Amino acid sequence: MIFKLVENSEELRQILEIQKENHIENVSSSAKTEQGFVTVKHSMKRIEAMQSKIPQVISKKDEAVVGYALAMHKSLKNFIPILSPMFATFEKIQYQGRKLSEWNYYVIGQVCVSEPYRRKGVFKALYQKHKEVFSKTFECCITEVSSRNRPSMVAHEKVGFKNIHTYRDTTDEWNIILWDWT
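^ thats the sequence. predicted structure below, dont judge the formating
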């Protein structure tokens, strides 16, 4: 298995396939509780725009994408409407005495590993690739995880993310979590 940056549209297409399989609407109740889920649906246009700002990190087995950890530059904060409450919250909260919005950060847009490759270190290795590639450019990466998605919270905490704020919007209760590289 290799961990790398996306190089072509076929790899982006495969990310979208994994995303669809693991979207909250397509996952059983037991799988949501035991393995987690993804909330946002990306289109090819959206993922290409994200790729144009920050390369996406994937894991591949042979020619197949088996996991991904998407990156989203903060300049795209108005690009995905469902994420607007998250970015608005960044303007209100502080981390280490600075508004979150003042930090040089990027957002992890979504992380997912295909079912046969879970619990094999892929999630952690995807994040290690992020740190390897982006820690010289950014101070931290930030994401939010639904309070209902306990498997994702636990996995992020194991990598090194800290919960710095919890809020509720019209859809859910969210934990803003941050991985500080300073």
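Residues 2-180 form a domain with the Aminopeptidase fold (CATH 3.40.630.30).
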